[in-house]
Amino acid sequence: MQRYSVFAVAREALRFHKGWERAWKSPQPKKKYDVIIIGAGGHGLATAYYLGKNHGITNVAVIEKGWLGGGNTGRNTTIIRSNYLQDPSAAIYEKARSLYETMSQDLNMNVMFSPRGVMMLAQTEHEVRGYQRTAHANSLQGVTTEFIGPERVKQLCPIIEIRGPRYPVLGALWQARGGTARHDAVAWGYARACSAMGMDIIQRCEVKGVRSENGKVTGVSTTKGEIGCDKLGIVVAGNSGVVADMAGFRLPIESVALQALVSEPIKPCMDVVVMANTVHGYMSQSDKGEMVIGGGTDGYNNYTQRGSFHHIEETVRALVETFPIISRLKMLRQWGGIVDVTGDRSPILSRTPLGNCYINCGWGTGGFKAIPGSGWGFAELMAKGQSPLCDAFGLERFREGRFIDESVAAGVAH
Q: What would the mean pLDDT of 207-224 be, rounded to a whole number?
């Protein structure tokens, strides 16, 4: 793999940038692989990467029906945090957050990780108690967070209105080492590293069926032919139920759209991420100056990746009350992603009723922040049959009533 560095940039500048290699290869599929991962988004690529790096499994194909990172990975709002309430959630999200801190060096790709800090506003007395509880839980879990007062909120984010007429800011749950990263670069970095290990990334290859024999998976049928495998990982986010149906089992999830938008670029005015659950919106400022804005999921099941006017109105109306400064900004673009949501708002990383077939789904609105932790744990689960990071997130928890309720700690939509 050609390493990226300031010296490489200088060298290529001298030869008019004609010596750069392709970041990853685009081969035709082989007849059989040790492992096939369906889905070349962040979670699928991270799983493949850690299969190779941690477990030495490199005869791997990552199959994508569209283009690499073209699903939720390229459509999210890039928030990274780990201040979740339940122990299993905090463990996997904190693992992810810690891996993000060294990801640029590990992948030799600048993912633009920015630990600018994430605050979750408490605008009711109920939220104050809830976030104080989460702060105490995080202390026991070894996750560094704190509950701060309104004066500190104003100090960290001067453009915020803490004396709003309906919902004044009473405090916030603050994680200083949370932040953002460049979502496309995360996918590209993992893809480049996987390709360098000899893995095949096969784009525009839609899975049409899952083949099995004697209760075990044997391969997949795709638009590029039949491909065999010893193990299969399904990592397709909002389309998890569709692929699971091909494999012969059902999932306790529903798919809904999650929308977001960005404003026209403006001068730097906000260097933290702010989430406001009561008014239902969140906002940060990108490196280009755009205000990145989002809210909750649509109120009905759908598979659309377009935006809608009612969502803009609802989310922006809520945020204007907390951030009056944005009231006259123009919207630059809007989009949506398809998220898969479980009843307890926690993911599924599990074996399935089909032998040697594994599922990674149900991340809902918090998938981007979990990418490296999810890939680390899911790779271990596929390689060894068990992973401490994944043990609590098995499918059997729904049958046993052993839920991991993150409906409150998940905040607005993250």
A: 96
